[in-house]
């Protein structure tokens, strides 16, 4: 019997155990970079490449409503989040986030985070050991809360722990997942009360701040978001910013493994800082793939998936595709000095147009923060003690096992 005519076995369990390597391993068995499989009981088609990115983000092919599994909504995105909407409803909700793309806004957040970083660094020299992953989460949370207009006195460390837990537990069963659920429930309830206080006038949100915009936003029926959904979308600004702690730990890992890059960052080479940020996001694993529900029967390179099935975009595989990157497992920021990445080539935070589609609108924020914090890391004097710096590909999302600990910190 022809291979693609065989009944498809459900591969959800192999995915959970295989992690980042599961889909790329299957792709290597295909000459056309397309894989038919079954996940969560549904037929699925996995694709890769710039043309596949455009195919995946075509709203005539894929919808997000009903595509994101409940466990991911209950941890990472939140029920009713912008990620679950399509067409006009998606575009209307996304208007809440698009002003955050303005260069002045990105610069404002970067200033708040770097100020929080500089304050934190002054205390690190007094400590025997600093775990960069943990400290970055607190610094990023403190900075984004100030920038978003949250009231002073917001408990930064508990909030940072919860934001990091939401990301850390979205793709795994077991204790990490249940910690993520509890964290989301706790913060949604707290921020929903804050939104209600803003609307009642008990709390004043700075004009046009994120808190102000979320509290005032109206959806397609010209009604304000219910407080819980408003809290979900407020978390969808705070949580991705805290998630940059993964990239900070990866940047430290890269500077440790390839210290020659440190000098150009120290010198303030802005173009190199941008290239370094792109290469960290390309080289190190974060999202393994993205998925959507098929609107109609689809065919890609001779393989098909019926309406109501799943279309998967192989993010990790594309970011390590030899045809796109030449030597994909070499960490080489210079590749992005030669030319900027095409919008459908480098996709660690999705592809397509962030203004109209589902590409993460916070991508410029991630890049701006990573440029600044990687430069500060390069200028920081510290030692790297013996520790487990392996990055397990079976763990999603992964990071250096030790969180990247440093000692003997001396601020510049």
TrEMBL record:
Record keyword Iron present: yes
Signal peptide boundaries: none
Keyword Cell membrane: no
Superkingdom field: Bacteria
Pfam families: p450
Cofactors, names only: heme
Keywords: Heme, Iron, Metal-binding, Monooxygenase, Oxidoreductase
GO biological process terms, semicolon-separated: sterol metabolic process
GO MF term list: heme binding; iron ion binding; monooxygenase activity; oxidoreductase activity, acting on paired donors, with incorporation or reduction of molecular oxygen
Binding sites annotated in the UniProt record for heme: 360
InterPro entries per the UniProt record, alphabetical: Cyt_P450, Cyt_P450_E_grp-I, Cyt_P450_sf
Family assignment from sequence similarity: Belongs to the cytochrome P450 family.
Name of the protein this chain belongs to: Cytochrome P450
Biological source species: Streptomyces griseicoloratus
Phylogenetic lineage: Bacteria, Bacillati, Actinomycetota, Actinomycetes, Kitasatosporales
